[in-house]
Amino acid sequence: MNDFSNTIINWYEEHKRDLPWRKTKDPFLIWVSEIILQQTRVEQGLDYYQRFVSRFPNVFKLAEAEEDEVLKCWQGLGYYSRARNIHMAAKQIAEIGEFPKTLEDVLNLRGVGEYTAAAICSFAYDMPYAVVDGNVYRVLSRWLGIDRPIDSGEGKRMISEAAKMLLDKNRPALHNQAIMEFGALQCTKNNPNCMFCPLIDCCIAYKKGLVETLPVKQHKTKTSNRYYNYIFVRMGEETVIHKRIADDIWKNLYEFPMIETDRAVSEEEFYSLPQLHNMISSNDKPVFKLVQKGVKHVLSHRIIYANFYEVNLPEDSESFKNYHKIKINDIHKFAVSRLINQFLSLTL
Question: Is 34 part of the annotated catalytic residue set?
Answer without folding.
Answer: yes
